[in-house]
């Protein structure tokens, strides 16, 4: 027997541990060389792990296990060659053979006991079943697809219990029944946080505890931007194949001011003794995904056109929501923009994205009465928030930055003419 160990590869410089989020191949299955066998979730991305050699796969770690970089997560028996008899999927398709074979008792120390295969888990979730509802017959007590199908059939065949006759309430009781009482619940459950959620939590706590963070506010009249988009949107789409959104206008305005005010675009070194200044604006865009918030940067925004920025944001958002962002696409960033307005937020204090020194928060647009030239007029207004690290950026600098961004957005012609 020739067995090789599979170890967690180096995924990124700052990644020291990963979570085995899903097995793509069953324990004991025959796998080909370079075939994807599992997925690892780090704080930056989800990556597939390939088989280094062909042979029989032997699980060492279970799903949801945290494994350090270099840790063993599986083994491959290279002495086993491919064939129908080596595939557990084929065995599942032969129920007659399973009936003749005695089910081996699961080992007490086996991690597989009561753990469903990916196919079995999907069926359990769809039918509201738990491990307690199913009799496991797989290797080492693992729940396989056939076990779930049998449990579903038994559940459907079980006779429904007749409701006990209702007892009439004593006539002396006059209290009416609670409205919607059938919907009351005292149930609770505990679930392990994903690797990304845990990393987001630690980074946010670090930002709050290790930076001298303050927030300054202003408001911007978006009348001219709304008029600009309405006037030229059709021509913009016809020429560039994408809509002119708010984000590219805000990103370009911030990039222009960042080039004029390098302190806002700077960051402290790890020892806190030096400042790193950037002659470019790599603006991280906060994107909400099913697993958490990610902030991939758009590089050199100061040099890109509006259409280039829109296309890049669309590309990054698509990859983020499908879990296909690479580590390179997640790296870097000198400034961040987050738009809580898409969720209806009117005002917030965004938290800095370390090691960056500032973050701009956009909010929902509201029609509000404003005093303009001695008259009250209704205008589309948005509150802006700039959170910044006071160790790097002075209060006057932060206020000036926000005022300059406001001026460019209220008069976008200056932005287009680079004035």
TrEMBL record:
Main EC class the enzyme belongs to: transferase
Compositional bias annotation for Basic and acidic residues: 88-110, 159-170
GO molecular function, one term: dihydrolipoyllysine-residue succinyltransferase activity
Any one of the GO CC terms: oxoglutarate dehydrogenase complex
Signal peptide: none
EC number: 2.3.1.61
Region Disordered, residue ranges: 80-118, 156-192
InterPro entries the record matches: 2-oxoacid_dehydrogenase, 2-oxoacid_DH_actylTfrase, Biotin_lipoyl, CAT-like_dom_sf, E3-bd_dom_sf, PSBD, Single_hybrid_motif, SucB
Record text on cofactor binding: Binds 1 lipoyl cofactor covalently.
Cofactor(s) named in the record: (R)-lipoate
Peripheral subunit-binding (PSBD) domain sequence ranges: 115-152
Occurrences of domain Lipoyl-binding (ranges): 3-77
Pathway named in the protein's UniProt entry: Amino-acid degradation; L-lysine degradation via saccharopine pathway; glutaryl-CoA from L-lysine: step 6/6
Pfam family, one: Biotin_lipoyl
Reaction equations catalysed: N(6)-[(R)-dihydrolipoyl]-L-lysyl-[protein] + succinyl-CoA = N(6)-[(R)-S(8)-succinyldihydrolipoyl]-L-lysyl-[protein] + CoA
Biological processes per GO annotation: L-lysine catabolic process to acetyl-CoA via saccharopine; tricarboxylic acid cycle
Keywords tagged on the record: Acyltransferase, Lipoyl, Transferase, Tricarboxylic acid cycle
PANTHER family from the UniProt entry: DIHYDROLIPOYLLYSINE-RESIDUE SUCCINYLTRANSFERASE COMPONENT OF 2-OXOGLUTARATE DEHYDROGENASE COMPLEX, MITOCHONDRIAL (PTHR43416:SF5), DIHYDROLIPOYLLYSINE-RESIDUE SUCCINYLTRANSFERASE COMPONENT OF 2-OXOGLUTARATE DEHYDROGENASE COMPLEX, MITOCHONDRIAL-RELATED (PTHR43416)
Similarity comment: Belongs to the 2-oxoacid dehydrogenase family.
Function: E2 component of the 2-oxoglutarate dehydrogenase (OGDH) complex which catalyzes the second step in the conversion of 2-oxoglutarate to succinyl-CoA and CO(2).
Full protein name: Dihydrolipoyllysine-residue succinyltransferase component of 2-oxoglutarate dehydrogenase complex
Organism: Saprospira grandis DSM 2844
